[in-house]
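Consider the record:
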Amino acid sequence: MEKQYRDARAALDGVIFDGMTIMAGGFGLCGIPENLIEALRDSGVKNLTVISNNCGVDDFGLGVLLREKRIKKMVSSYVGENKEFERQYLSGELELEFNPQGTLAERIRAGGAGIPGFYTKTGVGTLIAEGKEHKEFGGETYILETGLVADLSIVKAWKADPQGNLVYRKTARNFNPMMATAGKVTIAEVEEIVPLGALDPDCIHTPGIYVHRIIQGAHEKRIEQRTTRPRQAGR
């Protein structure tokens, strides 16, 4: 099956629809599928539920979808860098399902593994636990969290081969591998597509069985919070 598509728009053709649920990889602006996000914006798709650690910044990443009010609901663990996210949530325009970060990661991993739910101590006794099943194990209280799956997962990798085997680079790995397993359709954008056999099998992070479509794209790799200090004399 041919998995390589000419660009993000072509890769999204036939798999997007209004009201769908999308998982989007990345942590802050690190390892985000920025070309696919831009193509989603250009497609006009709306009323989205987006599962992502955060929602980018106001003018980049998922923030461009949020700015145009294409997102109906966010399932996230962090919202601190996006003022529009804050504004829409506080005004009631945006629904938010807030998760502890480890719980969000495990919900995605569980969904990709076919596990419908799991128990965790995280959130017991807090607002997170309200309305959820409680159960005791070994004298400790746990709450039930459900696994997450999506109609579409969009992920960013460093390298791919024509079969869709993926390698991520350093911290850009973040949420991407687990999201790649939890989408009914998974599209990966990569920096380089290498010939079949060029990737060391022991170094593949996401097997191609999980990946339906791939594109190669240029990436801005914007720094979310640039922090510098004055250069010392003589250095």
User: Anything to note?
Assistant: The mean pLDDT is 94. Residues 8-116+147-216 form a domain with the Glutaconate Coenzyme A-transferase fold (CATH 3.40.1080.10). The chain has six helices and eleven strands.
